[in-house]
Amino acid sequence: MHVVPRRSPEQRWDRRRDGPVVLLGLVLAHLLREEWWRRTGEWAGPEAPHTAQEAA
């Protein structure tokens, strides 16, 4: 099974509302959090609820 995070519309990036600079900031923050998780085993930051779905 594949686990997919689901965020509310307010938490999602929107091209028209946020623009590319915000998207790059979100990507950078996520990559830093992933590296922190690899080193410590702890996720640094808010987590979206995950639901199990069949892998395509």
SSE pattern: EHE
Give the uncertain stretches in residue-range form: none
Strand ordering within the main sheet? 1-2
Q: What is the tally of helical segments? A: 1
Q: What is the percent of helical residues? A: 40-55%
Q: How many distinct beta strands?
A: 2
Mean of residue pLDDT values: 81
| Shape descriptor | flat
Main beta sheet: strand number and arrangement? 2 strands, antiparallel
Which value, in Å, is the CA radius of gyration? 13 Å
Q: What percent strand?
A: 5-15%
Spatial separation of the terminal alpha carbons: 9 Å
In terms of structural class, how would the helical and strand content be classed?
alpha+beta
Please specify the SSE layout and strand pairing.
Elements lengths: L1 E4 L9 H26 L9 E4 L3
Antiparallel strand pairs: 1-2
Notable features of this structure?
56 residues; alpha+beta; 1 helix; 46% helix
Write structural notes for this entry.
The protein contains one helix and two strands. With 56 residues, it is of the alpha+beta class. Strands 1-2 form a two-stranded antiparallel ribbon. The longest helix is centred in the middle third of the chain and has 26 residues, at 15-40. The mean pLDDT is 81.
